[in-house]
């Protein structure tokens, strides 16, 4: 089989810690790459980075979804900032449909079977999510069948909660209510193309937003503000909001902050539409997500060249930190966002 080149998509995600509130003292959350290095140092054995935790006396039931942190490796090229990491996923005891490639038969010889036992341990087909992390930025390659970004978010959240302690408070202050950092959300990121589209349209004249009945968001979120109005009317299931500009367009950074919340996987904001000063409307925001296609080689033996993915991840991180012709960049040298930042918040911790 001759080598072939396939296309894979890298997607940028913004790390946001859960449990933010508008009360208490402001804190700065740690860089995600530092937390990943801490987890690897504290849990050197891969089974310690596995969810659920393996128990030899109680094997997993067939069909159990499992995930694990494969590895965390500091960068050794460029400016040496950030880490490369892998998240593995598999289903314990899953039977996979297989085919015997006997083309002489009238019907395809299909059968369901589990992988053969090696004599001591069960085996499973695993999938790998690859990524790089720096500051509040994660870039992922997540092909179909891996469990996607949600699998990476859930595993990393669990490992952070289990292993990453907050620094002690100064003498005389009460201890933290929760000793470890909270879990994380991986938020979609909108490219500067959305900002440019807004600028070309003369700014935002009107924002339409709809929130549904759901779990309340953090106190300082758009979702929480809208949910408060929804709850004010008994038996209401949805609340529609509309903001209209005065003589000046609405603040672009505030609008982009609302777009970020709308883009979260578990957002309670059901719909968001931007009406621009010049009359255009922006309803479809997916095309503005920050992503990049890369070419990956599959050689004649059918082996995927993972080095193409790793190099592509690092190159994309460097591109995102490089200023454009207008001297604007999405993230700084340390992986923190340059606009409508969410690095520091207030908390009840």
UniProtKB/TrEMBL annotation:
Protein name, entry field: Uncharacterized protein
């Amino acid at each position: 089989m001759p080598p072939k080149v396939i296309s894979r998509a890298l997607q940028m995600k913004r790390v946001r810690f859960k449990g933010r509130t508008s009360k208490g003292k402001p804190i700065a959350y740690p860089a995600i790459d530092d937390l990943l290095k801490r987890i690897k140092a504290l849990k050197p054995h891969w089974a310690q980075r596995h969810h659920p935790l393996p128990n030899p006396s109680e094997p997993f039931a067939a069909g159990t979804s499992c995930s694990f942190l494969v590895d965390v490796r500091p960068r050794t090229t460029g400016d040496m900032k950030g880490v490369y990491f892998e998240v593995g996923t598999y289903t314990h005891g899953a039977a996979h449909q297989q085919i015997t490639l006997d083309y002489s038969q009238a019907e395809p010889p299909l059968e369901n079977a589990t992988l053969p036992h090696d004599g001591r341990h069960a085996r499973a087909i695993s999938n790998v999510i690859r990524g790089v992390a720096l500051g509040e930025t994660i870039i992922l390659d997540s092909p179909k069948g891996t469990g996607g970004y949600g699998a990476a978010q859930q595993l990393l959240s669990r490992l952070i909660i289990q292993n990453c302690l907050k620094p002690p408070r100064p003498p005389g202050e009460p201890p933290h209510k929760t000793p470890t950092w909270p879990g994380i959300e991986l938020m979609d990121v909108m490219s500067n193309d959305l900002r440019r589209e807004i600028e070309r349209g003369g700014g935002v004249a009107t924002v339409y937003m709809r929130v549904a009945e759901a779990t309340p968001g953090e106190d300082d979120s758009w979702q929480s503000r809208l949910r408060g109005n929804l709850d004010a009317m008994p038996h209401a299931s949805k609340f529609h909001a509309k903001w209209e500009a005065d003589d000046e367009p609405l603040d672009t950074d505030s609008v982009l902050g609302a777009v970020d919340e709308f883009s979260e996987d578990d957002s309670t904001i059901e719909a968001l539409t931007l009406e621009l000063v010049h009359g255009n409307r922006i309803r479809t925001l997916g095309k503005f997500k920050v992503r990049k296609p890369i070419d990956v080689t599959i050689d004649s033996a059918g082996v995927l060249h993972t080095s193409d993915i790793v190099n592509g991840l690092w190159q994309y991180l460097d591109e995102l930190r490089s200023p454009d012709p207008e001297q604007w960049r999405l993230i700084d040298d340390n992986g923190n966002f340059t606009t409508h930042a969410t690095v520091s918040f207030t908390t009840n911790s």
